[in-house]
Write a structure and sequence with these properties.
The longest helix has 34 residues. This protein has a 7-stranded mixed beta sheet with strand order 4-14-13-12-9-5-8, with helices on both faces. A 4-stranded mixed beta sheet has the order 1-2-3-17. It has 13 helices and 18 strands. By secondary structure, the protein is α/β, with parallel strands linked by helices. The chain binds pyridoxal-5'-phosphate. Pyridoxal-5'-phosphate binds next to helix 4.
């Protein structure tokens, strides 16, 4: 394959970010406020500002942003209407340890958009909302146990920080050991839950049949937003709903990423299901910190009847005002349809480029948050993804970032689209993508050889 000559940007530098890192690391562990933001020495990026679909780093590098802060900036960074609303909201004050009129207005909008949310409470983050939902399920049922799925992410709290240890799995029939993915999580928690493979209703039923009477809730992401955007098969999600009803276990649908993104009513609208309790966060306020818990009235009324929920900053004024404006835009405009249309066009463009080079590939998830996978058939569960070869993605992602397309370097994170991504973003993205694919093939193609042959069959150089 000829060396690519077109849009190379050899000038990509992170000198200022790297200098800033040296300062930051003296004040903060890893020099960041979240472990996930540390990309290694010389690679960790610090942002100067965002605007629309783009972000600029301290070195002046401009990127088309497909991370959007892991999803929240659904209307684009610094959306003028949302930011103006937030400033207005702030004028009344921040928090009062008392309720306000606006929290009811926003709760009413959420009820209207998400039918399962008969009543609503607010939290500050996805983690907090899911914690509150699980506590509610336990309080309402009087049971302690719960079920989660391999490959899901529900935030950083003890009950959710467990994963299938595929690297050390010795007997596929027995399955992987479920291990915590961070120190400091008590092993005692392991006794409280079962983790079953995604898209496998039979395995779920096995657990519910044996242990249903001790289980408060099945906690599920309708689309694995932290595992390539692997979607539930429609029949699987319906089966989860039916099984929860059959075994009298509550279904918590974690829509922290999918809520107000994949449809106005989230994945529940897309799949035609209704949760007992659901959580929404990221897209609610275009990045301002707010999350919500919605659910069946008889369950939600347990808040205040023995189940605790609250927090100094819940429903603070600025985020509420941003939520009201964001939800209004998402509800009353074609923003979500436009986002999906962009995602579709981007996938089609990428497919054209990859097909022309004989690179097997597939996409997972929803057009608004999709994973790119280098194999003809996409994975439908975590085990499948984990045993695949994602080296090509990892290499490609770095080339894309260096050329101004900010995708997640980790292939588990989907590409997020905002309403600010426009035709010029699309053209530039595809242009850069083509070049990055060529360079990746050039660098990896041959030496990758035997290892990736089954996946990369057909690549000519
Ligand atoms: C499905 C899901 N639930 C919960 C969380 C935790 O949200 P937060 O990072 O706001 O605490 C996330 C974060 O990515 C998520 O994707």
């Amino acid at each position: 394959m000829n060396a690519p000559t077109r849009r190379l940007k050899p000038a990509y530098k992170l000198d200022k970010s790297t200098a800033h890192f040296q300062r930051a690391v003296r004040a903060m562990p890893l020099g960041v406020s979240s472990n996930f933001r540390y990309w290694g020495e010389g690679k960790t990026v610090y942002v100067e500002r965002g605007g629309g679909a783009r972000v600029w780093d301290l070195d002046g590098n401009c990127y088309i942003d497909y991370r959007l802060g892991y999803g929240p900036a659904i209307l684009g960074h610094c959306h003028p209407e949302v930011d103006a609303a937030a400033r207005e909201g702030q004028k009344v004050g921040t928090v009062f340890a008392l309720g306000t009129e606006r929290e009811v207005v926003v709760a009413e909008m959420i009820r209207e958009m998400v039918p399962a949310a008969e009543l609503v409470r607010f939290s500050n983050s996805g983690t907090e909302a899911v914690m509150a939902a699980l506590r509610l399920a336990r309080g309402a049922t009087g049971r302690d146990n719960y079920v989660t799925f391999e490959g899901s992410y529900h935030g950083l709290f003890d009950a959710a920080m467990w994963t299938a240890d595929m690297a050390n799995m010795t007997d596929p029939a027995k399955g992987p050991e479920i291990v915590t993915y961070g120190k400091g999580v008590p092993q005692l928690v392991r006794q409280l839950f079962w983790q079953v493979p995604y898209n496998d209703a039979e395995r779920l039923e096995d657990v519910l049949k044996k242990h249903g009477s001790t289980i408060a809730a099945v906690l599920i992401e309708p689309i694995l937003g932290n595992c390539c955007g692997i979607p539930s098969k429609p029949e699987f999600l319906k089966a989860v709903r039916e099984l929860c009803t059959k075994y009298d276990v509550l279904m918590i649908v974690d829509e922290v990423k999918t809520g107000f993104r994949v449809a106005k009513g989230g994945a529940q609208e897309l799949y035609g299901i209704k949760a007992d309790i659901c959580t929404m966060a990221k897209a609610v306020a275009n990045g301002y910190p707010i999350a919500c818990i919605g659910g069946r009235e008889d369950i939600m009324r347990h808040y205040g009847r023995g189940v605790a929920h609250g927090g100094t900053y819940t429903a603070q004024a600025m985020s509420l005002a941003a939520a009201e404006r964001t939800l209004t835009i998402l509800r009353d405009t074609t923003a979500l349809a436009d986002i999906a249309a962009y995602g579709k066009a981007m996938q089609e463009g990428m497919s054209r480029i990859l097909k022309a080079r004989g690179v097997p590939h597939s996409f997972t998830g929803h057009y608004s948050m999709s994973g790119l996978f280098f194999r003809e058939t996409p994975p439908d569960n975590y085990r499948d993804w984990k045993t695949s070869d994602y080296t090509f993605y990892d290499h490609l992602a770095r080339k894309l970032i260096e050329r101004g397309v900010m995708c997640e370097p980790d292939s588990r994170e989907p590409w997020f689209i905002s309403a600010a991504h426009d035709d010029s973003c699309l053209a530039e993205t595809l242009d850069v993508f083509e070049e990055a694919v060529d360079i990746t093939l050039d660098e990896l193609g041959r030496e990758h050889g035997a290892k990736t042959a089954p996946l990369m069959a057909g690549i000519s150089s």
